[in-house]
Each structure stands twice: as structure tokens, then as C-alpha cells.
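Team,

Forwarding the record for the chain on the shared tracking sheet. I've put the sequence and predicted structure together so nobody has to dig through attachments.
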Amino acid sequence: MRTRITLACTECKQRNYNTTKDKKTHPDRMETKKYCRFCQRHTLHKETK
């Protein structure tokens, strides 16, 4: 079963993206580089609660 997660920018702490992930295959927190419209550049985004 896939769960909904929120990705937040590590620099400005804005919550920018909503996505889903499978907890069985990826039990740890997800990190990915995505575009932040507040910083106006690509930054690292981490999964939040």
C-alpha cells in the first residue's frame, strides 16, 4: 500500500510537493533534488511528517 508524503525544502523549509511512496520497499525517509519556487533553484527536499 502506498502512503502519501510531503516533501519540504531543506533550505527555506517550505512544503512544496506531495507524493506517494511504498513503505515496504523504502522504509526510511526519502530525499530528492527538486525545484523550489521560493528559492528559485533546485534544492534538496526531504520527507516530512
